[in-house]
Amino acid sequence: MRTASFLALAIALALAGAGRTEAQPKGPPPKPLQIYAQFRATMGEGKFDVAGIFLDEFLKSGPSEAELLEIESKYGTTVFQQLRTIPKYSDDPASEKKIRENIEELIKRGRDAATKVLYQPDRVQKYIRNLGATYEEKIFAQQELKRTGEFAVPFLIDAIRTNPDRDVYSGILETIPVLEAPTMAGWVAALDGFGPDRQYGVLTALSSRRDVLSLTTEAQTDFTPYLWRVLSRDPKDVPENLRRQALALLNRLYPGTKADTKRPEVELTEIARKFYDHKARYIGAKTNPDGSPSVVPVWVWDAKLMKIERLPEVPIGQAEEFYGLRYARWALESRPDYGPAQGVILALAAERAVERAKFGALATAEPAVYRLLSDAPSAVLGDLLNRGLVEKRTTLVLAMAQVLGDRADRAAATPPAGAEVKPSLLVRALSYPDPAVQFAAASALLRSPVPVPPTARPLIVDILRRAAANDPGVPGESKGTVLLADPAKFRSDANALLLRSFGFNVEQFTSGRELLRRIGRASDFDVIFIDHHAAPPELIDFIGQLRADVKAAARPVFVIASSDRPRVPTFDQLLLRTAALIAATENDAVAMPAPYVVDPRAPPDEQLAVRTALVKRRDNVFRSAAAARTVRIQRVIDTLPMTLSETQRRLLDLRVQLIVYAILATEFPLTPDSAPETVLDVERIRKQLDRQPPSPAYGIGIPSTELMKLIERLEIDVARVKSAQDKYDFLRARVDTTDLGLKVETFRDPALEGKLARTLSGYPSVRIIPEPYTRLALETEFRVLFADPMMLPRDPAVKKADARAAIEFLRLMAIGDLPGYDIRSAEPELRAALTVPELAPAAVDAVERYKSGDAQLALLNVALGGEGRPLALRVKAADAVIRHIRANGSALPATLIDPLREQAANEPNAELRGKFLTIKGMVGVKPGEFVDALKGYSPPILPPGPKKEAEPKKGAEPKKEPDPNP
């Protein structure tokens, strides 16, 4: 941060001294346009990190609306938006974040200035009318409409579609070649809404632009598909001049094409396939840090409203789906039975649907697409499945496996004719490196009427076993599961904390071998992090084994290039952990009033009075809580063997206050509206910190060591109380040390990173990252990673659904409804499933078939499970225990006999009590006890019931009672 500030000062001084000699007096500060010129020059040199400092100085210089509009007039209306397309400005996460924020601020200021001056409908309409006036008025109108940019396009399109004035019409066509290239996207999209005569005129204007060849290279401005569509239609439905124009333009734009000899449906399908293959280019794309587009602007013609609409930020996957489906449908308009076009539509629709469904079941998550796929011929779906397997398109393979499995398709499960060795499509999918695909293929084969080859059956059981091992302890709101291997506990805990702050469930391991065993146990993980120290004997061998194992499922792998020198936390970082511990172990809850909510029924004066009183109370509670916590932290500091100078003491006190308020702000909303005085206090503390003179670091050496030992002892105590541990993790994960301005020790080793990159160059999908010490560093990595939908973590709900289905398949195998499968390897997973309420009923049937004592004991534990388990499940488990003992003998330890007797004596439910008595009689009764019970048995003597009067015989007169009053 100090280096950046010094560089900014040097740049400012250089700008201020531009154009002066040393002998001249100091001149005025540089003007905004001067700074922006330096920014442009630095960008042109590729010095993006330095350009970011110029950009910050430009914004701080306060450019006026006129200056912003002057820049747009000189460099184009999209000059500020184009800054988004740079993949990375700085390697420093904090600098990168700041530059991106500045870019968005600049875009906003430019948009606000243009809205106030240029984006006025009356102004645009006036200049459109002037396009049909005198030559001078027309030229000036063209210049002003060009300045207005994309805002003017809908008005121009509406005018050309509805205005009968020939002069205005001609003036608009003459203006199209003058406008900026990005605005052509609107004209290309509007071709859908024009009649043949207007299409002819607009196409002529587009083709007369100097940059016409560049237009055809961008998805939004490429009008080539329209030309092929014109040629694909029946000549009777297309004017001859429009048809000749389409032929001429295609031959001109693509010399040697000979468009009249081509089949339009083929060309349109190839264009659509470009979007399916992610090879299209886009104008105005906002890029990810790796350079790939993330969102793009798309113009759409609304046929119902007869209007053009610009969608500014469409995710790249949706844009590919929009254009690909559009052009493939045009191919089917020409030839409805054209198979390649049908395949492109199905593949595009299926892949995007799988992404939207988060790799879940299409039948429930995407019924419209599923209906489309269910109506498709099996041969088409089989071809798409084969293409997906060959091209490694996970989403396509998953969609086809689901649909073919749901229809119990024979062809997909049958080996190719004449191929004795080559497996069927679904058997091939069993080895595809993705757990969702593997499970879908296994499910499809188990539903198919075609017998599963014996060689594939062990693989199916293993897939079901790993799917059934879904960890029931993962929080429902978790974004996914991360496996982290690192032998250094402190470093591993710090990285795990960062990962949990993103919402991940984290499992920690100390070696690569442990990690591989975990991967083999279950397939419910999403991302792998491994420190390079955790891979004995060689990292390259470990990564090779990991990538060759289909159980790793092609999941993303990060290798952490941590220094051989362990990172020691600074004293300020230890203070932050101390403050979080104090907050997590408070005995008395902070009685913070909720923020004020307006009551519309109350009069304004009453609202103001209530709000003022509530805000004052919140400020008082914030201050009193901060003061109490500060005193507790100060007591801890006073116990440490450290001597501070006056400057160090002032710095320490201010940082403690700032840390305490930062912790409180994670617990309670802190805004200028909810607690204005507290916000001012925090800002005052920050300013005082900035004004402090430089001082040697405090707490180095023995004080840090002593504080760290104290923290470790307190953390052990906190870990014993789950609520306190959860609060401690929550607080630490949500306070950013960078934002607090705390110094963080980092030991980045560029030489090591380069060495690891060379070592693992054969595995381009493996990412080498420095040791992540802040959220910003990991945010960038995740933003790049998850820009690819294939890398997104699977939805926990989908994992649980697969686990339920896997348990059901294993149950059917166990009871003999799916014969021929050896499921002995799945016993541990099935026993574990007994503890999951939604899996337990099916798991009971399967576990009962295992002959082991562990299976018998697991069933009995379910039966004895108390009120937390459903009664029906306990009865079912108890019944299974009886049958298991009868078939395999008792394997229950003697320590369970007494609890079993107690449960049999106290169980309130008669049916379950009877089951326990039966089990006790089978395993827990000695002959002598039985004889004693016989001797002591005494049946209850019940008193006779009331005597029932005989019912009168059928047809007999009822007996009359004597009249008491004759």
UniProtKB/TrEMBL annotation:
Keywords: Phosphoprotein, Signal. It comes from the Bacteria. InterPro entries: CheY-like_superfamily, Sig_transdc_resp-reg_receiver. GO terms for biological process: phosphorelay signal transduction system. Residues 1-23 form the signal peptide. Residues 481-614 form the Response regulatory domain. Residues 935-966 are annotated as: Disordered. The modification 4-aspartylphosphate is found at D531. Residues 946-966 have a biased composition (Basic and acidic residues). Transmembrane segments: none annotated. This is Response regulatory domain-containing protein. It comes from Frigoriglobus tundricola. The lineage of its organism: Bacteria, Pseudomonadati, Planctomycetota, Planctomycetia, Gemmatales.
